Amino acid sequence: MRRRTFLSATGGFLLAAAPLLRALATAEERVMNRTVEEMQRNWRAFLPEGAEVPGPGDRLELSEAQWKERLDSMAYKVLRKEGTERAGTSPLNDEHRAGVFVCAGCGLPLFTSEMKFESGTGWPSFFSYIPGTLEMKQDRKLFMVRTEYHCIRCGGHQGHVFDDGPPPTGKRYCNNGVALSFLPR
Asked: Hey, which residues are catalytic here?
């Protein structure tokens, strides 16, 4: 009988507290979203001192021969031919220093170290990106529809975005490590 009384009282408390718990969760979401917006705005703080990086508007267009000369064979396959590197092969999976991840094709900053998370997929993953740096397109290969993203400056293929990332965005930008270079702060 005492157990039933305890459960009834506890259940009543939880029902009464539910609106408060929802309000707290919503407030936490707003703080997290503001943090993402701040990360997106303040990405330059993660650049090394004196680093000069290209802007998104400075389009880089090279011939296939120039790209082959500029990139190693795997980077060329991924960036120019929309290939994928084997999972778990990128040293950027274990990169945890403060800094900026830039496109390996043209040097445009795409992600900060604050945006990176451990997805367990074998590829560097990010929950957000620096605004204005990526362009999206549908990928219908492998008998499914996915969203593929490319560097807006050089058109280099970076990876795919999925809806299974962590809060606050719920996104996972699953990037080929060979398509990125890292500039430590």
From this structure: 174
